[in-house]
Design goal:
Structural class: alpha+beta
Shape: globular
Order of helices and strands: EEEEEEEEEHEHH
Helix content: 10-25%
Mean pLDDT: 91
Strand content: 35-45%
Number of strands: 10
């Protein structure tokens, strides 16, 4: 299965890709960087010869690399891009952001919100429940 992870990674005035983000949404689970200027780098690298059923490319979220199945520019509005990633990779992204100093959960299912803000790693089941 896959989960759509969206990043606020585009310029607010023109929608151009910035290569960094300060907010991430996974369904109703809303993650936010609270320190201005402490954005996380974001880079997408499509594979030259994608194989059906396998990731289309690599998504670099800070120092974490995961595969993505598809990418949508201007996901919701022009400030956001959406990436479909494997469930396990979505958990890896959440737990990576949780370890960074200025990231907090601003909204979502209560148990997952409190675990994220207490810096306790989320499980796949907890993230799936938080995304519904």
């Amino acid at each position: 299965m896959s989960i759509v992870v969206s990043f606020a990674c585009n310029h607010p005035d023109n929608g151009d890709f910035l290569g960094r983000f300060e907010a991430c949404h996974i369904g109703d689970f809303e993650l936010q960087c609270t320190m201005i200027g402490s954005s996380v780098k974001l880079r997408k690298v499509p594979f030259k010869d994608p194989v059906p059923g396998k990731p289309f490319g690599a998504l670099h979220v800070g120092r974490l690399e995961v595969g993505y199945f598809y990418w949508t520019c201007w996901f919701g509005n022009w400030c956001w891009d959406g990436f479909s990633v494997a469930d396990e990779d979505a958990v890896a992204i959440v737990n990576y952001l949780m370890k960074l100093k200025y990231w907090t959960c601003e909204g979502g299912e209560c148990k997952a919100l409190h675990k994220f803000n207490a810096r306790e790693p989320l499980t796949l089941e907890e993230l799936r429940y938080a995304c519904v």
